[in-house]
Structure prediction request, 210 residues.
Amino acid sequence: MGKGHEQTYKWVMKLLKGCDFDRAQKRLGFDREADGALAVDFLGRRWRISHNGVEAVTGKDTDDGVFEVNTRSVLGYYALSEADCEPEMDFYPINHFSHGIFEGGGAGYGDGLARLFREATGGEYKRFAAGAERLGLVFEKEREPGKYVWSYRLFPKLPVKVVYYEGDEDFPSDIKVLYDRTAPIFFKFEPLAVLSNCFIQALCHAARAG
Prediction:
């Protein structure tokens, strides 16, 4: 019996063998390879999704094996999604989609999310901004002094907003990741939470790389 994340990916690979890639391409915005496999850009790398699994076409694996396996799983989950809708561009924190089941500040959420970014950036907005650009986020605006809004497409049909609050002598820096209200149509809450953690880890890694 393998670890939980490994078992999840094996289950996703099994389901991919029966995935209708024609329908997935049309509904979910994938590109298509000459041999029929799906292709998509995700977290700074180009990925290929076939009936045999998920593999990176460009870029190198990180040293985090759990992150790599989870990344492959969420790519598979997106290909398997039955969603057929467009983004509504109405954004909420991930806790909004848990229906009260999940609350608190664990890693990747609430205070835990802010701590991760403070560790990765030293609480400096310039380091966050450099990492965000490196990963491909697009700066939208400074909504008010010290509040910066960035946008990103995790998947062709799944946009997110990242809101960074610059700290001062009284309050530490803070950050919020907001998901389009259609996110739970594409992902059940558990894989959406895994997707969220993958995005956060990738953004922290990009910030440290500067």
Notes: Confidence is low (pLDDT under 50) at residues 101-109.
